Amino acid sequence: MILVRWQPNIRAIDEARLRRCWTLSRLSREARVSYPTVINLLRGRTKPNFGTLEQLGGALGLSAADLIQIFEEPAGASGNDDGSRAGGFGGPGGWG
Q1: Position 63 in a domain
Q2: What is the pTM of this model?
Q3: Domains held by the chain: number
Q4: In sequence order, what are the residues at sequence separation of 6 or more whose Cβ sits closer than 8 angstroms to the Cβ of residue 31?
Q5: 68 close to 6: Cβ distance less than 8 angstroms
Q6: Which of 22, 49, 20 is nearest to 37 (CA)?
Q7: pLDDT at site 83
Q8: Which of 20, 29, 36, 46 is the 20 to 30 Å CA partner of 81?
Q9: Looking at the domain assignment, is residue 91 inside a domain?
C-alpha cells in the first residue's frame, strides 16, 4: 500500500509574496487570512486547511498545484502502521 501525504509549499507562497513586494500584513489582508495564521504557516508551525491555501493562492495568483507538495511512501514508512493516511485536508473524504 502506498500512502500519500502533503505539505504546503511555503517557498512558493513566500516567493510569490516577495515578488509582489508585499509584507506579511499585506498578504494577510489581500488573502483575508488572519495575520497569526499567515505567520504560523510560513514558519512551519501549522498546516493550513485547503480553504486557507485557496485564499492565499487566489491573492498571489498561484494554483493549487503551486501550493501543495505531494509525497508518496510505502505503508508503515511514516509510522502509521494502521494504514491510515499520513496527511490530508481533513474531514470526510479528506477534502473538508
Answers
A1: yes
A2: 0.69
A3: 1
A4: 38, 55, 56, 58, 59, 60
A5: yes
A6: 49
A7: 44
A8: 46
A9: no
